[in-house]
Give the backbone structure.
Amino acid sequence: MPTTMGRRERKKAQTRQALSEAALRLFSEHGYDGVTVAQIADEADVSIATLFAHVPDGKEALIFDDGSERRIWLTAAVHDRPPGQSVLEALRRSMAARGPFTDDLPPELRHKRDLIVNTPALREYSRKLWIACEEALAEAIATESGRDPSDMTIRALARYVLEIPELAGTEPDPLAALNAIFDLLEHGWPESPGKT
Amino acid sequence: MPTTMGRRERKKAQTRQALSEAALRLFSEHGYDGVTVAQIADEADVSIATLFAHVPDGKEALIFDDGSERRIWLTAAVHDRPPGQSVLEALRRSMAARGPFTDDLPPELRHKRDLIVNTPALREYSRKLWIACEEALAEAIATESGRDPSDMTIRALARYVLEIPELAGTEPDPLAALNAIFDLLEHGWPESPGKT
DNA sequence: CTCTGAAACTATAACCACTATAGATTCAGA
DNA sequence: TCTGAATCTATAGTGGTTATAGTTTCAGAG
């Protein structure tokens, strides 16, 4: 067997990519709500049934991958951090280099990111993909900090970290927002005890 | 004008309540996905068009109110807290007495709460209602703590607090989970600096 | 009390996302 | 080469949701 997949899987990947590109092109041109899945299927030259066979999560999932890349990337960021660096610091730096927080991206990806951030349905689905990593991230943090993985504090921390892209992504200065949020998570809410 | 509304608004409220009750009854009996909006409209003896006129947010919104009650309740919890009590402490106590965190409720409301917690679509919509209060809560916190309302730290705090019902609601001991999360928000993530 | 206009309701038809089914084609491995 | 599974297709259907146009019901003005 050759290292490249067989013709079958190659065609499958081609079809999936054609759908992804068609969707991104049409969304950019007419807006998310201005495009029907029928148009996308047409543009990619497949039937509607085929479209849904490739993208079981529906219309919003068309321009995303299946999310496994995110999960791997996250757990790696936690486990492979340099010595002496805290888990939160590692997550902060990794996130800052990614997603909505840097403009150091090919223009094509920037356009895609802007489309996602400015389209509620896509932003929400992006959040879903992040949240789907909650368990994996919680496990990674539990391992690294020697705590119990069922500790609610860990689950909450994982959730709150994964919520950051949606929370900070729409801010005028996303990177500053990201840093402010990580500061909150590291040190807590700095309130003077109460009113007089 | 009498203190009670006119017949018109009374009938409107009646219809809305009939829809709400019909939906709750049918959801409880056949599950959320086992009921169509047509059945609900039928049970409430109105047309489908009328159903959507009363509940513009769609099927999931049928058993919820419009969310304004939540908003009022939240801002009151912050502004009317006893002297010497911190904002987070006030929110912690208020939330603990409500929603998924106490069983001190009429059995009818308990059933409704269980239905919501166990039905993904309803749980998600409940979260939406909470998040819709983010801006109001952020403003309240900003006022009480003398900070700038556009401070990202405040927005994040508000968001994280409003995320608690969904985060802790499914835990075996929701109240303990709620307290653990509030501890995290108050004191931050207590991590030893890093690995060797 | 009556008129008038707005609001609520209705039936109907349509749109769109999504699913189910059954059959045709294509490829992989025995 | 043969067999079976995967892919794709057309088709028809379900269900949520919206638009339209017309009818009934009420509130307030005169």
Notes: Residues 7-63 of chain A form a domain with the Arc Repressor Mutant, subunit A fold (CATH 1.10.10.60). Residues 8, 11-12, 15, 46-50, 53 of chain A lie near DNA strand D (CB under 10 Å from a C1').
